[in-house]
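Because discrete structure vocabularies remain unfamiliar, we turn briefly to a single example record, giving the amino acid sequence and backbone structure tokens:
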Amino acid sequence: MTRKGRQAFLFSTEGKITEMREVDIKRFAKHEAGHAVHFVLNFGERFEFVWVRRTDDEPVPEIPGHTSIERSGKGGGVFFQPNPQLVTTTHALVASCMAGVAGERINRKKPGKFTFADILAGAEGDWRQARRHIQESNEQGLSKRIITDEDRFMDVCFADAWRQLKSLKPTHEAVTQALIERGMLTYDEVKAIINRTQGWNL
């Protein structure tokens, strides 16, 4: 199916940022690396860049030729051209929304569940986006079945995203480190890291 995004970024870490600490930057980087790696592996479309805030006063970047929707309050995000067309499934879309928190938990033995604590920690936008994808799927008949238990469906998608990232832990770590050092990576740069760390030729 084809899905049309409404904004220039689809996945992001949000929340009021008062003081940037090394631990915050690392968490943001792990989160956004999760989104970026998962997207490259599961979608045929491209994003413009993935970005992580590294200083208190760093503004949200803009896509050339387009004004960024939000100028502050974000720890990072994966940025697209406005209104991206994604040919995919509801499961893949929701899993990509969950991939940020999955990236934060890549060192755990089990993924656990996406909880209210994750929302409070900055993943509210991901949670709302996932819910929106499920709602649109049900209302427009985009999936074979109506999704009646949204929480369970999101838990399944979250676990699937975590397992995929966990199996590519060296890649996720390399993208995370590159974001910490550079702050921004293009789609092609993320893809190159995946190919280098996995010995692939995507």
Confidence is low (pLDDT under 50) at residues 4-10, 67-72. The CA atoms of residues 31 and 101 lie 6 Å apart.
